[in-house]
Design brief:
By secondary structure, the chain is α/β, with parallel strands linked by helices. 41% of the residues lie in helices and 12% in strands. The structure holds pyridoxal-5'-phosphate.
């Protein structure tokens, strides 16, 4: 065969992948990395180092020569601990043998769940603003993402009306992203009770991303899987990155009905094999003895949350009071700039990096995401720069 000249590798790249935009969160940090004296309140990653007792378990596992693959679904002891944790925290019983898979972060669990459930042409409902991976992973699974615009005045919740209006005959699945990144919105037991009958009537499944479940500042997180008849309809996703400050360990999990779980497991088996072994040993320790660490970090986040929300409101940047995760999502409408322009100017003029709301869907226009997973000193310094910016504009 005659070779085309000049050879173009891009022509060989899958069209769908070519068309997916790269994550809007990272873009500003790549620019910021080339500048000096930048303060960033951009990345959604705990500033705490993983507690030592957890790290030392990983070291011990390596010293003991535990350097082999684990079972595809993860170490049985870890799955048993996850089952115990879920029973205690969301009051749902999962069989560690058939209903839990340990994954490479919640990210892999989300991708696996979408690929396991979505057929070409299926519609996947995604309340927005929300985390950046739901949409592209839906597209890669052959599905059609259907964004549902949530509003600050409703606490960025998925209301029954919004859900009902978005359901069509093609709807297969709802992604439930609460506590929410980037808005900090949560769904209370009452909020969930209003959407459960609609989900059942429409006969759809739910992927509930509960990665921020431990970071709920007004009472305890409630999972939709606890409702009658909802365990089998829901894939619960969680992980170790946020609650235990273990982002770099890349460990998460999915809990689901055995029929769905075995499908996710097949994808995991062929694409990943098993999650990192020493990370799994560390995670067992985290679940067994990490409760006090979670509470300590959460207390600190809560102090920063209040500090930041008060300061932003004082500055006239109307700020929805976030009840979960570690982000605030203030309105920038009074500046008469798009979110992108605002972030670009703030970075250029004040060397402060935050994320445009549009990185989380079109409905994020008019907002920016500010993370408080940073030290109070960094937050205070950043606020001074933001104040100077507000004065100039
Ligand atoms: N889900 C949400 C809502 C997130 O914000 C993140 C990370 O920022 C993830 C999932 C992915 O977490 P992990 O580090 O476990 O892959």
């Amino acid at each position: 065969m005659k070779q085309k000249n000049p050879f173009s590798p891009l022509e060989f790249v899958n069209k769908q992948v070519r068309e997916i935009p790269p994550s809007g969160i990272r873009r500003f940090f790549d620019i910021a990395a080339t500048m000096e004296d930048v303060i960033s309140l951009g990345v959604g990653e705990p500033d705490f180092v993983t507690p030592w007792h957890i790290r030392s378990e990983a070291v011990r596992s390596l010293e003991k020569g535990r350097t082999y693959y684990t079972a595809n679904a993860g170490l049985m002891e870890l799955r048993q601990e996850i089952a115990r944790y879920q029973e205690k925290n969301i009051h749902v019983s999962y069989d560690p043998k058939t209903e839990i898979v340990v994954t490479v972060g919640a990210s892999e669990a989300l991708d696996g769940a979408l690929r396991a459930l979505v057929e070409p042409g299926d519609e996947v409902l995604i309340p927005e603003p929300s985390f950046v991976c739901y949409k592209p992973c839906t597209v890669l699974a052959g599905g059609i993402p259907v964004p549902i615009e949530t509003k600050a005045e409703n606490g960025f919740k998925l209301t029954p009306e919004l859900l009902r209006n978005a359901i069509t005959e093609k709807t297969k699945l709802l992604v439930l992203p609460y506590p929410n990144n980037p808005t900090g919105g949560i769904m209370t037991e009452e909020d969930l009770s209003l959407i459960v009958p609609i989900i059942k009537e429409a006969n759809i499944m739910v992927i509930s991303d509960e990665i921020y479940s431990e970071l709920t500042y007004t009472g305890k997180h409630v999972s939709i899987a606890t409702f009658d008849g909802m365990k089998e309809r829901t894939v619960v996703i969680n992980g170790f990155s946020k609650a235990f400050a273990m982002t770099g360990w890349r460990l998460g999990y999915a809990c689901a009905h055995p029929d769905v779980l075995s499908a996710i497991l097949k994808i995991h088996q062929y694409g990943i094999m098993s999650a990192s072994t020493f990370s799994q040993y560390a995670a067992i320790e985290a679940l067994k003895h990490g409760r006090a660490d979670i509470e300590r970090m959460k207390e600190e986040y809560n102090i920063r949350r209040k500090f930041l929300v008060d300061a932003l409101n004082e500055m006239g940047m109307t700020c929805f009071n976030p009840y979960g995760a570690f982000y605030v999502f203030p309105s920038i409408q009074k500046f008469h700039m798009t979110s992108e322009e605002f972030c670009q100017k703030l970075l250029e003029e004040q060397r402060l990096a935050v994320v445009p709301g549009t990185a989380f869907g079109d409905s994020g226009e008019g907002y920016v995401r500010i993370s408080y997973a940073y030290s109070k000193e960094s937050i205070a310094k950043a606020l001074k720069r933001l104040e100077a910016f507000a004065k100039d504009h």
